[in-house]
Design goal:
The complex is a heterodimer of chains A (156) and B (100). Chain A has 156 residues and is mainly α. Chain A contains five helices and no strands. The longest helix of chain A has 40 residues, at 35-74. Chain A starts with a helix and ends with a helix. Helix content of chain B is 84%, strand content 0%. Classes of the chains: A mainly alpha (156), B mainly alpha (100). The interface between A and B is medium-sized, with 33 and 36 residues.
Chain lengths: 156, 100
């Protein structure tokens, strides 16, 4: 059975990612400026990324390594661990720092961010966080599918 | 947050990403280094996380008062470039390790 921490980790990460998509859209919409809303979303999204990091870490260290990893490695799709999981666990380490940078920039520049040259760079950073977070989510899905495929192969 | 130095934070982010990539690749090439990381905090991944967090904070506070808040645009571009390159290096490294 899928451990509940996978769901919590994925949900927190995806909500955080959607938060950065929201920031991106707010930054594109220069006519309607609501800096307080923008700061709140950025803070919440950053906290969710940090929480996703810690919940994912608890699952990875305590459950995945001993229960899931050996099954995937013996199954028909060992690349799911050897490539995807390794990439996922290490690239995830980038996200909290990128999120913190995005939040700090918004919190510091406030309204000026809409007219600053930095706006385009911030939009690109939010887009990158969103793409990375969803790519990591997709890798998680493929890793879970590989674990299921390995279990099915054991039964049949 | 008004006192945050975004230039220093950008460089700190870039340096942390580079460090994560180096530690990740080196720990796969050198088993004794991976064991050392594992022994520090119980799991190599936890140690990598703690090291990156401490390194990020350390670099930020070293640069905070030394670096003027200018060229932020340029530093942000390097944050984006280092993130994409970091992702590619890690992905290509593990793909090569698997298929080689």
């Amino acid at each position: 059975m899928v451990h509940f921490l996978i769901g919590v980790h994925a949900a927190l990460g995806e909500i955080g990612a959607i938060g950065f998509l929201w920031i991106l859209i707010e930054l594109l919409n220069t006519k309607k400026r609501n800096i307080n809303r923008l700061k709140t979303i950025a803070l919440v999204a950053t906290i969710f990324i940090f929480l996703s990091w810690t919940t994912g870490g608890v699952y990875y260290v305590n459950i995945y390594g001993s229960e899931v990893k050996p099954i995937i490695k013996e199954g028909p799709q060992p690349w799911a661990h050897a490539i995807l999981m390794e990439v996922k666990e290490h690239v995830f380490l980038f996200l909290p720092f990128l999120a913190l940078l995005a939040y700090s920039t918004i919190a510091k520049y406030e309204d000026k961010i809409f007219t600053s040259k930095l706006r385009t760079q911030l939009i690109l950073l939010c887009l990158l966080i969103f793409i990375l977070a969803f790519a990591i989510g997709a890798m998680g899905y493929l890793i879970s599918s590989s674990a299921r495929a390995a279990l099915e192969a054991k039964i049949t | 947050m008004k006192n945050t130095n975004i230039s220093a934070m950008s460089i700190s982010t870039i340096a942390t990403i580079v460090l994560i990539v180096i530690i990740t690749v080196y720990s796969e090439l050198n088993q004794s280094f991976k064991d050392f990381l594992k022994n520090l905090a119980g799991h190599h991944w936890i140690t990598k996380g703690i090291i990156s967090l401490i390194f990020f904070i350390l670099v930020y506070f070293i640069l905070k008062n030394k670096l003027k808040e200018s060229n932020v645009n340029k530093y942000f571009q390097w944050v984006l470039i280092s993130t994409i390159l970091g992702f590619l290096v890690i992905f290509l490294f593990y793909a090569y390790e698997f298929f080689a």
